[in-house]
Design goal:
The structure is a single chain. The chain has 157 residues and is mainly alpha-helical. The protein has two domains: 60 residues, no CATH class; 89 residues, no CATH class. Strands 1-2-3 form a three-stranded parallel β-sheet, with helices on both faces. Helix 1 packs across helix 3 and helix 1 runs parallel beside helix 4. It is globular, with a radius of gyration of 16 Å.
Length: 157
């Protein structure tokens, strides 16, 4: 498993099950390890969709915390439609709409660089400029839609 997926999964668990973990990273890691173990027994590959489905099943048993919608995980390699900058912007807008009612929120975008530089390709000047423009647009967009007393954090991994 890639390190970015590990971080994203821990943040997702810590947010969705905050009423159980109380923001304790050790408890979040235990839940993650249990979910990973249960999924390793299946023959299907563990992608983001499979993992989210497993967390949804767990939530049916233990319930979701009220903060569950304050975290969004966008993986541009696995999410349908996020390979294109236009659809990525639409996805970010949709998540921002659900986060505005919370005291704070976090949007984690994983593998954004692969949208502009596919694996095995080099950074060209044009690709690097397009990537920089997208990162700057995302920062400005999130900042403009965040209230000072209700911040929304943007994490790029």
């Amino acid at each position: 498993m890639r390190e970015t997926s590990d971080i994203a999964r821990l943040l997702c668990i810590n947010t969705r099950f905050a009423h159980l973990t109380q923001s304790d990273p050790y408890l979040a890691r235990q839940i993650k390890d249990a979910v990973d173990q249960s999924l390793s027994d299946s023959s299907k590959p563990v992608d983001k969709k499979t993992y989210q489905h497993a967390l949804d099943r767990l939530a049916r048993s233990f319930g979701l915390s009220p903060e569950a919608a304050s975290f969004a995980w966008i993986d541009t390699e696995q999410d349908q439609g996020c390979h294109d900058p236009l659809w990525l912007r639409e996805t970010v807008m949709a998540h921002l709409k659900t986060m505005t009612r919370h005291s704070q929120g976090t949007i984690l975008i994983a593998n954004l660089s692969t949208v502009f530089r596919p694996r095995g390709k080099r950074w060209s000047r044009r690709r690097r400029a397009a990537y920089g423009e997208m990162v700057e647009w995302l920062r400005d967009f999130v900042r403009e839609r965040s209230l000072p007393d209700h911040p929304i954090h943007l994490l790029l991994v």
